[in-house]
Write a structure and sequence with these properties.
- The complex is a heterodimer.
- In chain A, the strands form 2 sheets. A 5-stranded mixed β-sheet of chain A has the order 2-1-3-10-4, sandwiched between helices. Chain A has a 5-stranded mixed β-sheet with strand order 7-6-8-5-9.
- By secondary structure, chain A is of the alpha/beta class.
- Chain A is built from 15 helices and 10 strands.
- Chain B is built from 10 helices and no strands.
- By secondary structure, chain B is mainly α.
- The chains are: A alpha/beta, B mainly alpha.
């Protein structure tokens, strides 16, 4: 049979019809919702993709479009700009934002993990305690939460920020600069730096972590955020998103292997072994935090929010203090039975 | 009478771009007001402009840093690009040997190159100057070499019959003939040069407009981000004008618009 242009066109039309039929059918019933993540696809994000693959979103009548992020603190910008209404981001950065923009607040509605802020160095650099940081060079991305919260670390340890030489760089080269010796230490979230360094071949026993939490600095970190206006206008949609996301987290914690499968399907270039460790690390932090033990997955206690607001506002030299209700809205959490803390499963 | 109308025309020509910018700013302001655009998408000019007066002390050191790294890189890049362009344009063999590599190197996205430069050369001024230079070399070299390689065959024959050797033909005809094209390339290069230094500053630096805008963005300080952008645009225009001035002085003979 000769291949004519009309035959090609007809064939193409049939192919398009076949391909798009189920989508059109789906689009009529499912509500499209863009969701931004905090960073490029990794570890714990498997929870979102597992929720997608297992049909948790579909069961809620949702068709989510899950998009990689470019920094947890930037999620607030994405929400404020209006490109997204809901997403996973840095709750700490919301404190400044809501203090300065009371008319367009962003709210935390689901707690993932508390902050694991740290100053991180390598064995052999002569730094084992905060006092050793005096006169040394620390590499810190300007938007990094551990850098922004350094005043809290200073207050707790007595090492002023002015005693340190700061070098600023983008987060993607921070660990490389530490390994190469251009800086003596870095500020980072422990989970981020730990696995980045491991991935680059550094042994865990050669890393030294000066954890903020060891000096009594505890703040919240990653959680689901949404525009206050969106919560007001479409509360049911938000409830359905959070129900699906919560099921995803519970399932990913209990069954990390499946979450990894879903993650790897989205980005086959990821290193599965490292992502498995990342997922386990965050699953443990998520389930072992006191708030989760007290109130189930996704829960923030009033006390932990109040403390975080105080610590962050002081460190960022904010003059006003927002209230707990300016930041956290508990009305979107699924009932406690759906948020029981599962045991962390084996990969 | 004729003289006054001439000055008036000149005045109008000088004023029209300024008026156009003012018009754009006004349209921007009106659009933001009428469509109720959030300042996190685009702050209004009336919110940005006061920042220059209120926070000039904060912006100034970053501006000086960016301007000096850009100019440094620009001068180095143009010198290397020009020398390379002359060499490639003059020698067919060299052209065939080196040009594919040059294209290959230029195809590497500068975003990917900057982190490497930082790891090799450290942070701050050096990678900013280097990136701004690297980004400029290619367009200058390509345009200068093409212009020299396409020197008039007849002119070359005449020169040879008069007893000129290749070097003399190159310096007396080839290079001067490439000047108009070279200045054209210069205008492209100066804007590219800013892209290079800003890129490097946003990857690893403690000073410079790239760093300032990064830090401002992380503090949700949108007005400062936009004032950085406007500063950059202004510097770009200023340097563009400077290269036009230099062009008029040096190769005014090539302009056929009769200005």
């Amino acid at each position: 049979m000769p291949v004519t242009r009309s035959a090609l066109l007809r064939g193409g039309a049939v192919a398009i019809a076949l391909y798009s039929t189920p989508r059109i059918a789906g689009a009529q019933t499912l509500e499209r919702i863009p969701i931004t993540l905090n960073w490029k696809f990794q570890g714990i994000h498997g929870a979102f993709f597992l929720a997608q693959d297992r049909g948790f979103f579909r069961a809620e009548g949702l068709n989510p479009e899950i998009v990689a992020g470019d920094g947890s603190a930037n999620v607030v910008n994405r929400l404020a700009g209006g490109a997204f209404q809901i997403g996973l981001g840095d709750v700490a950065s919301v404190v400044r934002f809501n203090t300065q923009n009371p008319d367009r607040r962003v709210k935390a509605i689901y707690n993932q993990t508390p902050a694991d802020l740290a100053v991180i160095t390598l064995r052999g650099r002569g730094i084992t305690r905060p006092e050793d940081l005096r006169g040394r060079t620390i590499g810190a991305p300007v938007g990094d939460t551990a850098f922004k919260m350094f005043p809290a670390f200073s207050a707790a340890t007595g090492i002023p920020a002015s005693a340190i030489r700061w070098e600023h760089m983008s987060p993607n080269i921070r660990e490389a600069m530490l390994m190469q010796g251009q800086v003596d230490a870095i500020t980072a979230n422990e989970g981020t730096a730990l696995f980045n360094l491991k991935g680059a071949g550094v042994r865990e026993e050669d890393m030294i972590f000066l954890r903020y939490s060891d000096f009594g600095v505890h703040i919240f970190n990653i959680g689901m955020l949404a525009n206050e206006s969106f919560l007001r206008e479409r509360p049911e949609t938000v409830r359905r998103v959070i129900r699906a996301v919560n099921r995803g987290y519970a399932e990913a914690i209990a069954n990390p292997g499946a979450a990894l499968d879903s993650l790897m399907r989205r980005d086959p270039l990821l290193n599965r072994a490292i992502e498995a460790e990342r997922l386990r690390y965050n699953a443990e932090r998520m389930t072992q935090q006191p708030d989760a033990r007290d109130g189930g997955l996704g829960f923030y206690s009033q006390a932990s929010i109040r403390n975080s607001i105080e610590v962050i506002s002081a460190a960022e030299q904010l003059t006003a203090r927002i209230s707990v209700d300016d930041l956290w809205d508990a009305n979107f959490l699924p009932p406690i039975e759906a948020r029981r803390v599962p045991n962390v499963g084996r990969v | 009478m004729a003289a006054t109308s001439l000055t008036r025309r000149k005045l109008r020509e000088a004023a029209s771009p300024v008026l156009f910018v003012l018009f754009l700013l006004l349209a921007w302001e009106v659009a933001c007001q009428t469509f109720g655009i959030s300042k996190f998408v685009a702050p209004r000019p009336s919110e940005i402009v006061p920042i220059f007066f209120l926070r000039w002390g904060e912006i100034w050191p970053h501006t000086v840093q960016t301007l000096s790294t850009t100019l440094g890189g620009f001068v180095i890049g143009v010198a290397i690009g020009f020398a390379l362009g002359v060499a490639l344009g003059a020698s067919r063999g060299l052209y065939a040997t080196v040009f594919p590599t040059l294209i290959g190197v230029n195809s590497v996205p500068k975003v990917a190159l900057v982190p490497l430069l930082v790891l090799w050369a450290g942070m701050g001024t050096v990678p900013a100057v280097a990136t701004s230079a690297v980004i400029v070399i290619f367009p200058i070299a390509v345009i200068v070499s093409a212009s020299i390689a396409t020197m008039d065959q007849e002119l070359a024959d005449v020169l040879r019959s008069l007893g000129a050797n290749r070097l003399l033909a190159l310096t007396k005809v080839g290079i001067p003939q490439s000047m108009p094209a070279f200045f054209g390339a210069l205008k492209i290069a100066i804007t590219l040069s800013f892209i290079g230094s800003i890129l490097a500053e946003s990857v690893a630096a403690n000073l410079g407009l790239g760093f300032m805008m990064n830090r401002a963005a992380s503090d949700f300080d949108v007005e400062l981000v936009f004032s950085g952008l406007l500063t950059l645009a202004t510097m770009g225009v200023a340097l563009y004008l400077a290269s036009i001035l230099a062009e008029r002085r040096l190769v005014g003979w090539a302009d056929r618009r009769g200005a």
